[in-house]
Structures are given as C-alpha cells and as structure tokens.
Amino acid sequence: MYDFLKNNKSSNIYWLKYPLQHFNLTLKLKAQETITLLPKFGEHLNQSNEEDAQNVLQYQEYNFQWQEKLFSQYQFTKFGDIQNCVSEKDLAFHRSIHQFNKKPQKVFTYVNKEYAFPLPFKSKDYGIGLYSSCIKRLNLEIFLNDNFGKGESMHNLFKSEDDVAFEDEWKAMYIFYDNSKYDEDNNLIFQDECLLISVYHNTKYNYIMISPDVNNESNPYAVESSSGYLDFEYFINVDFGKSGCGEEFKDLLNKLLKKMEKKQKHLIKFVMPPLETRKYYISLEIESAKDFDGDIYIEYHVKVPENIDSVSLLTGRTHLNKCLMNEDIHMWAFGHIVDFEVESATGIDPLPLRIFFEVISVDRWGRHRTEGYTYFPLALIPGFCKKQLSCTRPEELNEIDAESRRFFVGGYHLIEDLEMLVKPQLYATNFRFVSTGSIAVHWTVISHSHSPGCHSSENQSPVPHTSCSELIQGADAVLKQYKRAKETLAAATKSLIRAVDSE
Fold first, then answer.
1. Predicted confidence band of residue 283 (pLDDT cuts 50, 70, 90)
2. Is the pTM of this model over 0.70?
3. Do residues 24 and 238 touch, judged by C-beta distance below 8 A?
4. For residue 349, what are the CA distances in angstroms to 198, 277, 343, 346?
C-alpha cells in the first residue's frame, strides 16, 4: 500500500489570489534508504564515509520561482558556447549563464518559451468544433475543397488561429532531475531526464495546475527514469505568497457579519403599508436552463399593468454560466434570485405581471447571440409556484443567410417589441420561430394590506413604522377624534336648544 501511494501521482488545481511573482515552489530530494547506501565492510571505521552516507540520507532542498531557468550539465555546456546559439532564445540563455554566473544543476527546469512539452488538455479537435459545425451546416465543405486548391489552406488558417488562441491561455514550467551520463570532460554520453513536477498557469481564468500535487515527507514520490524507478524520492511544497491571508480573511468575515446584521435589522423592522393599499412581495428564482449552446446568461424584463406601481428594479440579468452534463443533457444551473415588490389599491383584482426572458450565449470570440425568448404571466396570488418555460428563437426565412449571419456576426435582433411574444397575431413578421431549450423558474408571492383598527388595540405591542406611515396614521386618528368630538358637541347643542324652547 505504501508503494502504491508513493507512485500514485495526481494533479491538483489552485486558484490564485496573488500575482505569480509571489509563487515559490520548494522541492526536497533525497536518496531512498536502501541497502546500497550502507558502507562497505571494513569502511565503517572511516568517519568520512559515515558522514557522506548521512548526508545522502538527508533531504536536499531546491527553491524555484515562476519561470526561473536552471540549467542541466548538457544545457550548460550547449548554451555556454556561443557557437551553439542560433535563436534569440539560445542567446538569452547564453547571456544568463555568463551574466549571473550560473552553474549546472542536478535539478533543472524548462520554462515556457522553450515549449519542450505539450500543454494540458491539448487535442487536435479542441476549439474548432464551432468552425466545423458551421462548415457542415452551410454545406461549404465542397467549396473549401474545390479545384482551386484554396480549401486546405483556409482550413489550416482557421485551425492555426484556434491553436494559437489555445496556447496563449497556458504558460508552463517543468522541473527535471538530470540522470544523464557524462564523461570526464562533461560531454554527454547518455541522456536521461526525469520529469519531477509540471506547473501550468491558465492566464485566462488565473489558476495553476500542479502535477503531481503537493505532498509531505510521510508519503514522498519516487523519481521515475526511462530505465525504471531510481533510488530517489522527493516531496513538494508550494507557497502562494499568502502572508497576512488570515488577517484578510478575518476582516472579510467581519465585513460580511456587519452586512448580515444590517440586513437582518432591515428585515426585522416591519413596515405597515399605507391605507387602502395592498403590497405584493415577489421572490423569483431563475433556477436552471437546458438544451442550449455554449456559455449562456439570461436577461429578464418585468412589465407591470397600469393600475400597479413598483419601486423595484424590473430588469436585469444573471451571471454567465458554463454547461454541465447531467445524464447526457446539457444543463446550466443559475440559482439567480430576483426580489421585487409592487403595490395596488385594495378592493380590486390586479392583472398579472408579464415577465420576459431572453437567453443569450457568448462564444470564445466574445460574440453574443440570442438563443431563445420566453414569456409567462405571473398572477399576484399568494403562494408558491414553479414552471418550466419553453423557449423559441426568431430566425430568418432564408436558412443560409440566417446561419451565416449568426456565425460570423452573431445575428441581430428580429424582435423589437417584446409584446410580440404575448400577441404574435397582431404583428406582421418576415421570420419564423424555432424551438430551442427551456428555463426552469419558481416563485413565491406574499401580499399584505393595512388592517383597519390595528392601531386602536391597547394591548398590541408597538410596531416600528417609517415616519411617513406614522404621520398618516396620526393624521387619521386626529381626524376621527375631531369628527367624534364634533358629533358630540352637535348632539349636546341640539339638546340644549330643545330645553330652552320648552321653557
């Protein structure tokens, strides 16, 4: 089991918080404790041999910065002689050796500009799926492979651009152990370079991949060579420059706590709605989407009837989301919550709110395409509801023009007024609707209105109100008391007049 864990090397991904100049990788290497390291018979009296054996059994520590170039004996001999330097890269290595007095190392590196090894996830078909799909849909394969001989060159042009764009997203660094054989003059006899660590940096999303992952002394890795395992082992430690990270995390938690307490106070402070007004609180969650293409986000628009007022923001969008595979179904999980409130007069049945959704995709070139529209009426009835909304996308009648325009420029908006989704028969159109994917939503509606006489209860616990509601309720109470006093005075005056007349 120990050997399995020692040779079971797996990769890991780390998201970067600090720039890569703070990145520091520590490699500790030592010989394995085997019988070959024991001193020979008769040499145990020699103290120097015992000290040498003890030194071999101790870890030798190596520190590496990001893109730090260290040279093996072969590279030191090659780049040290200017006659062997042809390219600008070779000349840069030659200057580095002589300017900084670098020495050959047993543990050396390959940096990104050497392109010594393939980058991670490299695939021949990576990144050209969209291009191939467009060529197939537009039936342009025959045109690209015609007798003029331009098809292959155009295909290679697209492919080369995709490959360059892919490589620009990754920077690599490799750490090797030099197990090569040299003669007395340091001339190479047999080259054997053992890969210890690979570090990849994704410049687009700012994370690094380390292979193998960080480990500890209790479970070191074995050094692998072309002829089998060597009698060496090593372990890895990485410092991302997180000094003071604990204090920053503590400050972040304190800020979040203050925000939560402030929001909690706002929620606890219940506000009574105005007189003869009913308020509706709606919490709508855009849960997920499925059966679309690419990375998508969703825009929403809420339109309220004329007899309903709203003080909330009624338009917005979700975050950009990537596709997840769930039982061969393309899924996008959003969990985006929209909270808003509306109000209407009491005694009437308000019309439903009209909520419109537009699903928009973003490709690798930054082009935004409309993937579908949908609409549903949200009735202001208290309770919980959920719904699966089917989406349709407007498309030009000429299929070739529609596909080519959609691929090269992202298409354009064919729907100018969203009311067309509600009553399409009232609009003259020169396009058709194509079914696409669907959106899953659910929502909760809560209604609340002013309860008459709630302020007259003496045993009711005081409820905090805003200054506006307190002013309205105070004025209403004064008017009622004035009206009651006026009626009492009128009744008393009337009885007094009758008594005087009777005398």
1. very high
2. no
3. yes
4. 67, 12, 12, 8
